[in-house]
């Protein structure tokens, strides 16, 4: 009973996601899970996943956030539009320049935060105004549209199906391969833990979790196969999630983030270069903001002065709903992905049902407050126990 309660507590948002998906699937009479709508959900919320992963890295360092990501998205998008559409520069060179701009912005903000020790809230609030202003200057207040097709295809196309037919077989094959990799990794992980004498997770719970994950993946790829197939944007998101998931859990620099978030002074005394860790967290955040900007201009086929508005709030919300602690040191990449999907399903489901946009904001605000309150109350109870 205790183990079941602990398992439920660890996966509370996953359970909540399943419940809310079922509710909206019934409320929308199945429209939510129609193949075309599932594809739209992925494309509409792709930028949220990318930004939320970067925001998680910042939050892990001690509850720090970045308020400038929306403005960075607008600026990098404006530069992309200027280079690719107006100047007709090579798209690959343009992409490299945009990513370099993102990194430079991160270096600028990271310097003030990590080495001068100006609070991240102040630096990124200044960045929110600064980079939005620069974006308006670059665009001259106008919108740049009609990106070339070879650029749009990088983000808006689908993995081609080698088999002819209405159903995309390659999409399902990709899902099967992913499931086989997950099963192999679980087996290897258990063997390594057993060899090193670590405590093993209950075999039944591991099997249930693996079967559930593989079931969701197969269901998703079958659904995608009934539309246009596996979106290229989903491949990009998978790469980001896998790389950062591995980085935060399996590498020494990744563990530094958790150590710093737990107790920065103790981490510094143990030899961790905390200034460098904080600096790289903000460089990485701006880099991922540039990636999100390239995704957004491809999705909207335009670079607008208003692009990226409130993106930072959505990313922060996804992190906290996904289990990140407001105090830092706690949070996972899979949790953030669940948080982003939760917000996407909530928004999409309410939109399909015709719920007023103002009511949607009220619901999202209450969900975010509930997620943070749950974290704070849980910590208080564990301290008092």
Automatic annotation (TrEMBL):
The chain crosses the membrane at residues 12-35, 41-60, 67-85, 91-115, 122-147, 167-188, 200-224, 230-247, 277-301, 313-346, 358-377. It comes from the Bacteria. It is a multi-pass membrane protein. InterPro entries: ABC_transp_permease. GO terms for molecular function: transmembrane transporter activity. It holds the Pfam family BPD_transp_2. Keywords: Cell inner membrane, Cell membrane, Membrane, Sugar transport, Transmembrane, Transmembrane helix, Transport. The keyword Nuclease does not apply. Its main location: membrane. GO terms for cellular component: plasma membrane. It is found in: Cell membrane. Part of the binding-protein-dependent transport system for D-xylose. Probably responsible for the translocation of the substrate across the membrane. NCBIfam families: GguB (NF040906). PANTHER family: ABC TRANSPORTER PERMEASE PROTEIN YPHD-RELATED-RELATED, XYLOSE TRANSPORT SYSTEM PERMEASE PROTEIN XYLH. This is Xylose transport system permease protein XylH. It comes from Mobilitalea sibirica.
